[in-house]
Amino acid sequence: MTDLTYSEEFKYTSTNPYHDKLEEFKGFVYRDHEAEGLKGKWNSEVFEREAPLCLEIGTGYGHFMMEYSEKNPEVNFIGLDYRFKRSFSLAKKLSTHPTKNFKYLRAKGERVHFLFNESELDRMFYFFPDPWPKARHQKKRLFQAAFLDQAYKVLKPGGKIFIKTDHDGYADWMIEVMDNHEQFEVVMATKDLRAEHPEHFLAAFTTKFEKIFLKQGIKIKAFELVSKKKD
């Protein structure tokens, strides 16, 4: 079966009841193709202000999204996740959050080029994704050459991707993908973030999952990529 995720032919389909429940938060939540209709309009029509546009792929329970939005009110922040029930739980939390400089998408990270115009994004965050450790499932990993191609398109010149993972195998996979991809410069790569780069931005906060990994003695792998795109 052909994977249509990256193509115009892809269609979101769902009978999950949480899809309809998310309608309750339509003031800041966009579901499936709703978000794709806003491509190129995020700052001008959605946020209605010019500001650095940031995207977090795999927002999870929203700890980083809420903390970063609150500490950086000057940015326009977009969180994205694909799971229904977790998206609804996070939307409830976001509805009472003190800052409102964010939007939330129930969408797929593989479709960033349908969500954003070329050079529309300033920063991208990708923290503790599902590593899909079994060999037969690794094709489901988001971090692949096709994804980096799309990330390069939607990020501005000098735009950045920040990554953290607990999984050694996925980190090695990422390194291999980056080694074969010339559109980004890897300005920071570590297999032990807090020991080797304790002053780095990525070491300045700890997500819910990260706290668990650190207690287990798992070292955090991290990367910072900068787009080589020219103005």
Give the topology.
Elements: H1 17-21, E1 29-31, H2 33-36, H3 42-47, E2 53-57, H4 63-71, E3 76-81, H5 84-95, E4 102-106, H6 112-115, E5 121-127, H7 145-154, E6 155-165, H8 168-179, E7 184-190, H9 193-196, H10 208-215, E8 221-227
Parallel strand pairs: 1-4, 2-3, 2-5, 3-4, 5-6
Antiparallel strand pairs: 6-8, 7-8
Catalytic activity: guanosine(46) in tRNA + S-adenosyl-L-methionine = N(7)-methylguanosine(46) in tRNA + S-adenosyl-L-homocysteine
Enzyme class: transferase
Protein name: tRNA (guanine-N(7)-)-methyltransferase
Overview of this protein structure:
The model has no long low-confidence stretch (mean pLDDT 93). By secondary structure, this protein is of the alpha/beta class. It has 2 domains: 1-48 and 59-112, no CATH class; 118-231, Vaccinia Virus protein VP39 (Rossmann fold, 3-Layer(aba) Sandwich), CATH 3.40.50.150. The protein has helices at residues 17-21, 33-36, 42-47, 63-71, 84-95, 112-115, 145-154, 168-179, 193-196, 208-215; strands spanning 29-31, 53-57, 76-81, 102-106, 121-127, 155-165, 184-190, 221-227. It has an 8-stranded mixed beta sheet, with helices on both faces.
Morphology call: globular
The CATH architecture of the largest domain can be named as 3-Layer(aba) Sandwich
Biggest pleated-sheet summary: 8 strands, mixed
Mean pLDDT: 93
Distance between the termini: 39 Å
Taken in chain order, the helices and strands follow as HEHHEHEHEHEHEHEHHE
Helix tally?
10
What are the low-pLDDT stretches, counting only 5+ consecutive residues below 50?
none
Radius of gyration: 17 Å
Number of domains: 2
